[in-house]
Amino acid sequence: MNIILLGPPGAGKGTQARKLVEERGMVQLSTGDMLRAARTSGTDMGNKVAAIMDAGELVTDEIVIGLIEEQLTTTTAPGGFIFDGFPRTLGQADALGELLAKVGQTLDTVVEMAVDDDALVKRISGRFTCGSCGEVYHSETKRPAKEDACDECGENNFKHRADDNEVSLRVRLLEYYKKTSPLIGYYYAKDLLQSINGLDTMDGVAASISKALDG
Ligand code: AMP
Q1: pLDDT greater at residue 65 or residue 121
Q2: Which of 57, 116, 125, 164 has the fewest CB atoms within 10 Å around its CB?
Q3: Residue 127: is its pLDDT beyond 90?
Q4: Shortest CA distance to 194 belongs to which of 65, 105, 107?
Q5: What is the 9 CA–ligand 1 centroid distance (Å)?
Q6: Greater confidence, 123 or 30?
Q7: Residues with Cβ within 6 A of ligand 1?
Q8: Which atom of ligand 1 is nearest to the CA of 87?
């Protein structure tokens, strides 16, 4: 089963994708994670996208479609793929359909995680992650049990994303409404869209996603 998790920045796509990886053996394809990895390893592409990402703008379709194509043609995923943060434009959505057809796969469902904008701003401004295992925390709602150790892997390697600040979040939200939200209509018209309440608790959202996938 191949699915898209669709929603604005801070909707919880990454957190829920990680749960699906653990529980269903699916493979998470996050273009945001791939771009951050390219920056960390200092590739030409990573250097090119750094300023764009920090400002909260979208990188070109060509770059992210290339990243997804590489993964789809080299990775096997018996449990299916979760597209997290991709597609973000109508051009990317068309390209994804073509790439999946090329590797003999289809898209099974698109789960829209609906959240309100005030909640997003709050969520994003307190967000930090473990740089070693990727576990996501929040300064108010989900602190690690010990200040200096990740609950999951025990490392003391907490990171705050450079683009998780209020100025860049406003740009990311605008990019979402201008370029990504049309995908809701696009996938509705393809009869693939299911909307869930992304403001529920983490377990509540996970249960809604499971229902969308199995129901
Ligand atoms: P994310 O981790 O999904 O929030 O992505 C972080 C940043 O990476 C975004 O603000 C964009 O600058 C860039 N990015 C990630 N995925 C895409 C995409 N599908 N299209 C364009 N830019 C992307």
Answers
A1: 65
A2: 116
A3: no
A4: 107
A5: 9
A6: 30
A7: 9, 31-32, 35, 52-53, 56-59, 64, 85-86, 88, 92, 163, 172
A8: 19
pLDDT, residue 105, reads 96
Phi first, then psi: give them for residue 194, nearest 5 degrees: -130, 130
d(CA 71, CA 63): 13
Query: Are the C-beta atoms of 95 and 125 separated by less than 8 Å?
Result: no
Q: How far is CA 123 from CA 62, 76, 138, in A?
A: 30, 33, 7
Residues in the chain: 215
pLDDT in tens, 43-90: 999 999 999 999 999 999 999 999 999 999 999 999 999 999 999 999
Report phi then psi at 102, rounded to 5.
-60, -35
Compute the distance from residue 133 Cα to the ligand 1 centre, in Å. 20
Active site (catalytic) residues: 13, 88, 127, 161, 172
What stretches of 79-201 show up as alpha helix (H) in DSSP?
Answer: 90-102, 117-125, 166-175, 182-189
Q: CA–CA separation, 159 vs 24, rounded Å? A: 27
What pLDDT score was predicted for residue 165?
Answer: 81
